[in-house]
Amino acid sequence: MEQAMPVYILSGFLGSGKTTLLQRLLDHWKGLGLKPAVVMNELGEVNLDGLLVEQSVPMAEMLGGCICCSIRGDLSTELATLIKKESPDVVVIEATGAANPLEIVDAVTEISLYQLVELKGLITVVDAAHLIELYRSQQGATYRLMQEQIRCASVLILNKTDRVTKEEAEEVTEILRKWNAYAEILPAVRCALEPEELLDGLGGIHTEARFGEGDELQESEDQDLTSKDTEWTGASHSTHDHVMAYTHYFKRPVNSEEFEQFVKELPRDVYRAKGIVTFSDTSSRFLFQYAYREADFMKITPQGEVPDVAVFIGEHFSSSDLRTRLLQLEKRILARPAAVKRSL
Ligand SMILES: Nc1nc2c(ncn2[C@@H]2O[C@H](COP(=O)(O)OP(=O)(O)OP(=O)(O)O)[C@@H](O)[C@H]2O)c(=O)[nH]1
């Protein structure tokens, strides 16, 4: 009998480290001589994470919406087409950080009705520092979404442990254990784990955990809020219909210091940003990442035509304010006679 195609779902809140883990898994499988393929879903209109994945890896991109609701129907089609076209040995679905993973589990299960696929597990990556903070405040839709992502995981990666103290790491491990009694918890920095250890620890999908004892998921007022200032709203799913994304296409380069300052001053409600920018004062293009108040800049030379673009994801922030500020940065360059060169 034909073997079922193994499928893994990567879940975890925005910026927790899913793409970092994806890169490790892909290297692992390729090292074993296997052919992995990826379904990547982004809230923004461009796939910036895709740039970090080697071009030889077949990829289906689902952009501009969340896989678990607004474009969920497309997942079956994309996955089926990818499998048919590329005949991979293994497929990873990287959901947006705003996705409710159970909806994706549902969609994959649907596909298995007509395609030989086996859902091997749901890996949830947790940003240790972010979870501690949310746990302490114990409110908001983000908190509930994180909780849901943790509850149904088959394995939990407690990532970014470099950003918490030893005591906090213990505290956060207890939280994870309380919310998910089944999954193995693997602490990590930059998801640096033995892929075998990770994949062996997968013990199936714990959908029942959602309704388990001590369930703290509660409906509350802010679940009904929808953003006005939005470029995108996950329209139908109550867990994250508060999440919004704004995509900004740059028409010209910006000054690196001013841009760094702009990133530093992003409103708290923007919890994830990424993009590609050309700086007027350096000769390179940079991929920038911003997750839970930490920014990273990496020099890149993108393959093919990639625009200068930035995607901002968060809750209830004003996209018009961000747009105005970015346009100001772009304009300032025009007003300046000569830029001083610096290297980041
Ligand atoms: N300090 C620290 N930074 C990390 C760690 N792991 C990942 N990062 C950084 O966090 C940022 C987000 O990482 P990604 O792997 O892109 O996160 P993601 O979950 O794929 O993000 P989205 O797809 O936007 O939800 C990047 O700048 C990473 O370099 C970690 O363990 N510690």
From TrEMBL:
Bias (Acidic residues): 214-224
The keyword Heme is annotated on this UniProt entry: no
Nucleotide-binding found in the keyword field: yes
Source organism per UniProt: Paenibacillus helianthi
SMART domains referenced in this protein's UniProt entry, alphabetically: CobW_C
Keywords per UniProt: Chaperone, Hydrolase, Nucleotide-binding
Top-level division of the source organism's lineage: Bacteria
Signal peptide location: none
Region spans: Disordered: 213-234
CobW C-terminal domain mapped to chain residues: 243-330
CDD domains: CobW-like
UniProt record similarity statement: Belongs to the SIMIBI class G3E GTPase family. ZNG1 subfamily.
Full protein name: Cobalamin biosynthesis protein
SUPFAM superfamilies: Hypothetical protein YjiA, C-terminal domain, P-loop containing nucleoside triphosphate hydrolases
Catalyzed reaction equations: GTP + H2O = GDP + phosphate + H(+)
UniProt xrefs under InterPro entries: CobW-likC_sf (IPR036627), CobW-like_C (IPR011629), CobW/HypB/UreG_nucleotide-bd (IPR003495), P-loop_NTPase (IPR027417), Zinc-reg_GTPase_activator (IPR051316)
